[in-house]
Structures are given as structure tokens and as C-alpha cells.
Amino acid sequence: MVLGAYLLVEISVTLEIAAWLGPGRTLLLLVLGALAGIAVLRWERGAFLSQLSRPDPLYGVFLQGLPERALRALAGLLLIVPGFVSDAAALILLIPRSRQWLIRRFTTRWAQHSPDPTIIEGEFRRVDDALLPEREHGP
What percent of the chain has pLDDT over 90? Predict the structure, then answer.
């Protein structure tokens, strides 16, 4: 039902813009939007692969940037979808402040619903075992 409503809104907005701009300009804008979406996805893929190809990636930093990358990739996909409503949503997702707001909003919502972490208290001490083989240090 939601998908049907979305498609109806997308089609009606596109037809209104086509009536205002003409079919040729409307089609040109839709094609340019799709090309921009492809460019965004290629950019994100390149940034993702370059981060993975680093010799010693910092996984904490990598994981922190994952929601940003996911929202930018979603923006690229929305730009590829024909229609101006999806393009407007994609442009909103391409604005850094709106992405940060969405990430904050969802992380605080998930943090409220997550159970408290289990904490196990204990002590430890390091014991050198003479029976274990010596490990070489170095690259």
C-alpha cells in the first residue's frame, strides 16, 4: 500500500513537472539524475575499496563511517530511480548535516531499545608457560 502511494505521488509529481517544463526537459532531468546516481555509487565504491586496501585499516574508524557511506549509497540509488520525489530525497541525503541528523536519530532510538550490556567482573594475570614455543616478533 505504501509502495502504491509512493508510485502515485512520484508519477503525479513527474507529470506536473513535465507539464511545466515540457517532456524533453523533464526526460533530460531524469537522465541527468540517473547519471548523477551512478556517479555517486561509483564514488562510494571507490572510497570503500580504497579504505579496504589499506595495509592496516582502523576497523573502529571504518565502522564509524559505515552509516555515512550507506546513506550516500542510498542517495545514489534514489537518484537512479526515475522520478523527482526520489531525487529530492537523495539530495537531502547528500547533505552532510541531514545524514548526521539521521544517524544521531536512529542511534539514539536503537540505544534506547537495546538491553544493558552484561558485565562480568574478574581478575587476570599473565602466566608465562615454558612449554609454549617462542614466538618471533617482526613483520
Answer: 46
